[in-house]
Write a structure and sequence with these properties.
about 475 residues; alpha/beta; Ubiquitin-like (UB roll); 6-stranded mixed sheet; 24 strands
């Protein structure tokens, strides 16, 4: 046996020859592994304090030299054979308070991050909001990887990891037994939560056992309905809060998450699609990226020939979250350092953080996925891009996104009259359902008005997607 010490988190007894990433997952320690721990993505970085060990070929490939010198290594590449001390960037031990039974729990089960709010049932006030990593990240950074892992026999492990994440969230909120819980999420996450099979998401046509909203007893819970495919209750929740379905305008709703949901509303018609954006817009799966946590670079600017940046809470930089990444892309394009085909002319560095060509490609794919989703829905509704009246963007993107940058990289078309940003719309919908019983009828109304569009099944999808990869304003 060896002792694993994780700074700010505690010590753990570990059997020798256990993979570090497996130990972290087993003990509920948040770690990202976009590829499922197969050594293909470089996202499961930890800083090994002792014992020091030279990097292997994969670590040299995925981790910048400046980070290697600081002791950063890949958790999937290390077996524990001696006592070890490590640090995980951005990881802080959860502190708890105590709330009584007069509180409800609003829950947004995201692929990468799980958010929760404690809501006072007497007056509807929000007592506290917390977020934690979804520990399923140790198996894979996207839902398709997790579905594949489930089919390969890891369903029970994934479900256990999800419930460990929920336990952490409840501890953070200080409410182990809420009087009622309202849950939103994408169909795969909701299936894990409800102990439903996920095999139907492995191939087209994507199917699940979820449809209408579900009431559960012991303890009392309500799960939002889904629209179809990979478009779930979190999207219905976001539409509800935005009230775009009531505006009578041509409206876009975009969730810059791992699924990258895109919704177009025209009159009484709601068209919804899920894009294969991947976790890049959440700062995951890119070498230079991180979640929107203290130390994340959330704004980038260009002045007097050099790049400037701002970090969340003004802490030392640990990586770029989505808003910083989008700013950077736009600046590199404007300065001619990045071509619109996604090729970097030369290396770029912010502080100690290297921006690789591979990072740019992943962001290019994420942008292209959203762009193509919007374009196909516009074509379906027969609306020209410049006829969109408003757009609302939600997601775990960091600080306020730059409209100019979003248009420059081609994620949004020009001419939208009003663009607004709100990071927590799905969670806000769950909160409203606790505050008012009247909300539940509106959820079913939105679901019935919605048509799920499977992008990959559209005859022109490949052509539209390839053309959308160009990092340039819309034609």
């Amino acid at each position: 046996m060896s002792i694993l010490t994780i700074k700010r988190h505690g010590t753990f007894k570990v059997k020798n020859s256990t993979k570090l990433i497996d130990c972290l997952a087993k003990n509920g320690i948040p770690i990202i592994a976009t590829c499922g721990g197969k050594g293909r993505c470089g996202s499961c970085r930890v800083r090994i304090i002792t014992p020091q060990k030279p990097p292997d070929d994969r670590e040299t490939l995925f981790i910048p030299q400046s980070a290697l010198k600081q002791g950063y290594r890949l958790a999937c590449q290390h077996k524990i054979t001696h006592d070890m001390t490590i640090d995980i960037p951005g990881l802080k031990k959860v502190k708890s308070t105590r709330l009584n039974a007069n509180y409800g729990l609003a829950l947004d089960i995201g692929t990468t991050v799980i958010k929760g709010a404690a809501v006072n049932l007497k007056n509807g006030d929000i007592e506290k909001i917390c977020k934690v990593y979804n520990l399923q990240n140790s198996i894979g950074g996207d839902i398709i990887t997790r579905v594949s892992a489930s089919i390969d026999g890891k369903y029970d492990i994934l479900r256990k990891l999800l419930y460990s994440s929920l336990k952490q969230l409840k501890t953070c909120l200080g409410m182990q037994k809420p009087a009622i819980t309202i849950i939103v999420g994408n169909p795969v996450m909701l299936s894990f939560y409800l102990h439903e099979p996920v095999n139907g998401f492995a191939q087209y046509p994507f199917t699940s056992n979820l449809n209408k909203g579900i009431f559960l007893k012991n303890p009392p819970r309500y799960v939002f309905p889904i629209i179809g495919g990979f478009v779930g209750g979190d999207t219905i929740s976001g539409i509800l809060v935005s009230r775009m379905h009531k505006s009578g305008k041509n409206s876009l709703y975009i969730d810059l998450g791992t699924n990258g949901e895109v919704v177009l509303i025209r009159g009484k018609n709601i068209y919804a699609a899920s894009t294969a954006a991947g976790p890049a817009f959440e700062g995951i799966g890119v070498d230079c990226g991180c979640l929107a946590i203290p130390g994340a670079i959330d704004q980038v600017s260009y002045s007097k020939g050099s790049l400037k940046f701002h970090t969340i809470n003004k802490e030392k930089p640990i990586g770029l979250c989505a808003s910083g990444l989008i700013d950077l892309l736009a600046i590199l394009l404007e300065q001619g350092i990045l071509k619109d085909n996604g090729r970097l002319k030369h290396a770029v560095q912010l502080s100690w953080i290297d921006i690789s060509q591979g990072d740019i490609r992943k962001l290019q794919l994420a942008t292209g996925a959203i762009h193509s989703g919007i374009k196909i829905l516009l074509n379906r509704a027969r609306i020209a891009p410049d006829r969109v009246d408003e757009a609302v963007i939600t997601g775990e993107f960091g600080s306020k996104l730059s409209i100019k940058a979003l248009i420059r990289i081609g994620l949004l078309p020009e001419g939208i009259q009003k663009i607004s940003f709100n990071k927590d719309l799905p969670l806000q919908g769950a909160i409203k359902a606790i505050q008012s019983n009247k909300i539940l009828n509106q959820l079913e109304e939105i679901r019935e008005l919605s048509t799920h569009i499977d992008l990959a099944a559209q005859p022109d999808f490949q052509e539209v997607f390839v053309s959308s990869l160009k990092l340039a304003p819309w034609n």
